[in-house]
Amino acid sequence: MTALVMMRNGAVLTNSGYRTSTGVQDSRAATRELRELVDAGVVEQAGTRGSTTYQLAVKRDPAAAGLTGNEVKIMEALGTGSLTRAELEESTGLSKDQVQHALQTLRQKGLVRLLGKPRSRVARWSRA
């Protein structure tokens, strides 16, 4: 968490810098943790081996990520909060089927997450 805060404030970390900021002693463990952050899309990696650096991933514009019009509407409606499927229908003007299809596609792309049980009427969706 400390490393992410540092990156959010503009820091570019190396494996050594990550270990110093987090207290992780083993360089292999640090590499594994940094790789998990890269795989999750939270951090971007540049360089290889000894010159590898890590920085916070730049948020991409949903339209630039190859999303459909309906998917962009869903992402914009979600903003920084969470909404139920019914609330998404109301705020976007899309039908139930359009919202469900867009949400499933966005979930497969790792852009949204479901908060709650899949068949629950009170389940909420948020950006990942």
Automatic annotation (TrEMBL):
Q: Which Pfam families match?
A: MarR_2
Q: Which domain of life is it from?
A: Bacteria
Annotated HTH marR-type domain residues: 66-114
Annotated GO MF terms: DNA-binding transcription factor activity
Q: Which InterPro entries match?
A: HTH_MarR-typ, WH-like_DNA-bd_sf, WH_DNA-bd_sf
Please identify the protein, giving its name as recorded. HTH marR-type domain-containing protein
In which organism is this protein found?
Actinoplanes utahensis
